[in-house]
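General statements about sequence and structure are easier to judge against a single worked case. When preparing material for the folding task, we compiled for one chain both its residues and its backbone structure tokens. The amino acid sequence and the backbone structure tokens for this protein are reproduced below:
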Amino acid sequence: MQSRRIGDVDVSAIGLGGMPMSIEGRPDEARSLATIHAALDAGVTLIDTADAYHRDAHEVGHNETLIAKALASHDRGKDVLVATKGGHLRPGDGSWTLDGSPRHLKEACEASLRRLGVEAIGLYQFHRPDPRVPYAESVGAVRDLLDEGKIRLAGISNANPEQITEANEILGGRLVSVQNQFSPAFRSSEPELELCDELGIAFLPWSPLGGISRARDLGSAYAPFARIAEKHGVSPQRVCLAWMLAKSPVVVPIPGASRPETILDSLAATELDLSAGELAELDGV
């Protein structure tokens, strides 16, 4: 498994996104644990989660608890950087709400620490800007958690270039990651990716294959990905992740998975070399 860096930590070039294992349509726990263990066996050392990755109101942090269980039962579990997030909430009716207040973020971090069973969270990210709270106050809470040793690395998610710059200043140059949506269907985060490349900040594309309901149709929706996949004898999804990896050494995709075979196919993208012509064709989609 190839590696890339988040802050001062080497991680697998592709991580595992945990959300599909905890929200609506999730598999049973046994299959989820098998998926996480398959990823670990293949060399994954980055798993992305959030306290909001749950289905019902009474099970906040379902995915964090699941990941903690999977890591504790695998001999490579201690080698994994777990990235979690706070500031997004799910009332249990399928909707998403926001609370970026410093008080909530600090309480959420404490709860995540308990569920993950660690003394310090590897990477903690402010999940999404809350328009009711000044951005500087939300990021300031993350800075406090970093200074207090509650978290080892700090990141932000769903941020624009101005917020990336502001967050890095508030954190005293210690911003290590930006997690934004990026896929063939969602290209508007190109400016954020370019800024991260310039600053040497890890860029973690979420839903890199288009999301839970669309990932399997990537090839039919975007013909160049299917055409190049057929040429190489691989899946369009593998081509997509290889294309992302080629964009910049700061890119670390975190495709979600709920089956061992899907995450293993995604991880094989690190071994797929695309030509300059193929990359240009995919860039033009």
Observations:
- The chain has a mean pLDDT of 96.
- The first helix runs from residue 29 to 41.
- The CA atoms of residues 59 and 159 lie 27 Å apart.
